[in-house]
Design brief:
Layout lengths: L2 E3 L4 E10 L2 E15 L3 E9 L12 H9 L2 H6 L8
Length: 85
């Protein structure tokens, strides 16, 4: 091994059941630090996803991308579409 992680780092994951038998990660919190042979490392991430919505089961990737691109998904969710889409 060419490095080590410092004590006290944390990794917390919370999942929610979005439909029977289907689980998604709702929260991910990672906070670690350490040192490699060549450099100091640090990684912090806090990600929260809480607005899951079902889409039609028969939708394919191209159709899903179309819903995002034309703003249909944003309208259904009541949000503004991202300007870069």
């Amino acid at each position: 091994m060419l490095g080590r992680l410092d004590a006290g780092g944390t990794c917390d994951v919370s999942r929610v059941e979005v439909m029977p038998g289907e689980w998604k990660i709702a929260e991910l919190h990672i906070h670690i630090s350490g040192r490699t042979m060549f450099d100091t490392i640090g990684f912090e991430e806090d990600d929260v996803s809480d607005d899951f919505h079902l889409v039609p089961g028969a939708i394919d990737l191209k159709e899903g991308a179309g819903l995002l691109k034309d703003g249909t998904a944003a309208r259904l969710l009541g949000v503004q579409p991202h300007p870069g889409w």
